[in-house]
Amino acid sequence: MELRKERDLVDTDIHAILGNRRRRHALDHLRETPDTVAISDLADAVAEREAGESPPPEDLRQSVYNSLHQSHIPRLEGEGVIEYDRETNEIRLTESAREVEVYMEVFTRYGITWVEYYRLLGTVSLLVLLLATMDVAPFALVDTVLWVSLFLALIAVSTAYQLWTRRSLYLRQFL
Fold it and tell me: Where exactly are the transmembrane stretches of this chain (predicted)?
């Protein structure tokens, strides 16, 4: 792949990149893949996300392939977010993609931010513990230590899930 000089992206560039759903889907798939991705495989993955079915309809897959090839890949390459090898038709994220990933990482797959999720979990856990301590039924029926253990387990599982869904980012940092 051709080596390009990395550049800093400004907020307006990042918002323009993420302003298109198809580009976001493509970047999501590239983030989840620690190696290079063939453009045809990327088109399949993006079409599956758009259609919500696997395999995606052939006309949608072809439409995604064409728009990636003609519009989105050149745009992402021009911004320095990806490297595209025209000989092998393979794509990989560059170091500059991390600037875009910061904006993408904020949200869970369910549309809320991780900050909102952890804030809600913390608030609910404190409320439940307060009610249990004040002997309010049914919360008082469960020992406070069990409530604390339950919420600590939820936080641990949530953190593990968040790390697991970002595993390719961490792997790419070591490669």
Answer: 117-139, 145-164
The whole-angstrom separation of Cα 23 and Cα 108 is: 17
Write out the CATH class of domain 11-104. mainly alpha
Please compute the mean of the pLDDT values over residues 115-120 and round it to a whole number. 87
Q: CB-based burial of residue 110 (10 Å sphere; 0-12 exposed, 13-18 middle, 19+ buried)?
A: exposed
Phi, psi of 37 (to 5 degrees): -130, 130
Judge if pTM exceeds 0.85: no
For the chain, which residues make up each domain, given as ranges?
A: 11-104, 108-174
